[in-house]
Structures are given as C-alpha cells and as structure tokens.
Specification:
heterodimer; A: about 180 residues; elongated; B: about 90 residues; mainly alpha; 3 helices; about 55% helix
C-alpha cells in the first residue's frame, strides 16, 4: 500500500470509524506477528491485537501523520498494550530465533557459535528494558530508525544514537559475563 | 518485571496469513468500539442533575427512615410512666 492511499484510508477512517476496516485488515497480520513474538501464546496475542486496534480506533481522531507509515503508530500502541500486560507479570520469557541472534551477533562482532548465542541471550536478559526494546525493534523486527523512533517516542537521530549505545552496553555485558 | 531471553530450540514458527486471518474479527472490534465510545461519553453521575437529585432523595429518605426507627426504638426502650420511680 503506497503512502498516498494509506493517507486517504486514514483520513476516511477519521471521519467515519466504519471505514477503519481496510486498515484493520491490512495491518492485522503485522501487529499480530509483532505481539506474538513477545507474548508467545496465540490466544493472548489475538486479544492484545484486538485491544491494540480498539485503542487505535479510539485515538484515531488525534492521530497526526508525520510522514511515517501508519503501521509505526500501531506498533507503538501494541507495545503499550504489551507493557500493560507485562506489568502484571514478574517475569517475561521471549524466544529468539537462531537467525535473529546470529544477525545481532554479527552486528556485535561475535561468532555465531551455539555457546555464543546462549551467552548473547543471557546478556540481553541483563540489559535494561528500554535498551533491550530498542535492540529488539531494530535487529529482530528489522525496523528503520525513523519508524523505531516513532514507536519509542523519539526522533530518528535520537533513536539511532540510543540504539548504538544500547548495543555498546550489550557488548560490555557480553564481555563481562563469559 | 524481569525479561528473560532464550534461544528457541528450533526455528520460530510464525503462523501463516490464513491462520492469522482466523483471529481477525472486525465485527467484535466495531462492537467493542461502540461500547467503549458509549462508556467514554456517558455523563458521570455527579454531572447528571436528575440522577444526582434522585440519589440525594434516596439518601435523604434512608436517613429519615433510619432516624424514625431510632426514635421509635428509644421510645419502646423507655419504661412506661407508671413504672417510673418517683422520688
């Protein structure tokens, strides 16, 4: 979907909420996968996804396009939903695929051996939540910095800088914990 | 809340588009939207004059009834005038 047709769909949904349906159909899969990666269970993901779209519909009159995909705004709402869900829990387990962990390892200059990947996951668990989220969004979700910034409520440059700092902190934790 | 990352034992299986589409329910979304919108625009009790007056009337009536019951009980507890000790 190109930016113009997306903008017209958003404009139409702002004036008539019944016309939100095409946006819901278009982005449901993206948001579902984004949440499933963090929540684990499909049933829970379905509920959180539904709640994300409900909150998006309710907040749509206040939505202002900043030249970024509408999806980025939905990711931000989805992340807030996840945070509210996580607040009720003492511990959250997030599974990392080997491929994703290897990509992150490459970025950090770490060999992709099984043992290194386990160490990397342990180091990531020790990173503070905001830094870990920046790394997730950038390296596991593959988000460009502009979108990542919108999701985290930062500008593009700030998002880039903080992600690099988070990566540096992760590298230090990795080195300190063999 | 502590975040714990672990390397998945096998490849992470993401559901197919068809499977995800089964969780999509626009009717439920619109139903919840209208319900939430209605709840958002509902006047709070303290701002609704009629409801507030009705509630005030109920509280006043309850107080009057309880006061009347107390007085009756007090009158019933007191000994009849003939049994009263006159010095």
């Amino acid at each position: 979907m190109d930016r113009e047709s997306e903008a017209s769909l958003v404009g139409a949904a702002k004036t008539d909420p019944e016309r939100f349906a095409p946006l819901y159909v278009r982005y449901f899969g993206d948001i579902f996968r984004f949440i499933l990666r963090r929540a684990g269970s499909k049933e829970l993901t379905a509920d959180l996804t539904q709640q994300t779209f409900l909150n998006a519909m309710l907040a749509l009159p206040r939505y202002e396009s900043r030249g970024l995909p509408f999806r980025a705004w939905l990711y931000r709402i989805a992340l807030n939903e996840l945070r509210m869900y996580w607040r009720k829990r003492r511990e959250v387990s997030i599974d990392l695929g080997r491929q994703e962990a290897r990509l992150l390892g490459e970025e950090m200059g770490i060999a992709g051996e099984e043992e290194d990947l386990e160490r990397l996951a342990r180091a990531l668990s020790k990173l503070d939540a905001k830094k870990a989220q920046l790394i997730e969004l950038r390296y596991f979700d593959g988000m460009p910095y502009a979108e990542l910034g919108q999701v985290m409520g930062l500008g593009e440059d700030a998002a880039k800088m903080r992600t690099h700092r988070a990566l540096e902190t992760l590298r230090q934790i990795f080195r300190k914990n063999p | 809340m502590k975040r714990h990352y672990r390397i998945a034992p096998g490849p992470i299986q993401m559901p197919s588009d068809a499977e995800i589409a089964r969780y999509r329910d626009p009717r439920r979304l619109f139903y919840n939207y209208h319900r939430a919108l209605h709840a958002m625009h509902r006047k709070p009790l303290y701002k609704d004059r009629k409801a507030f007056l009705a509630l005030l009337l109920i509280v006043l009536l309850a107080w009057l009834l309880s006061d009347a019951a107390d007085r009756r009980k007090e009158a019933g507890d007191a000994p009849p005038p003939s049994e009263q000790h006159v010095p």
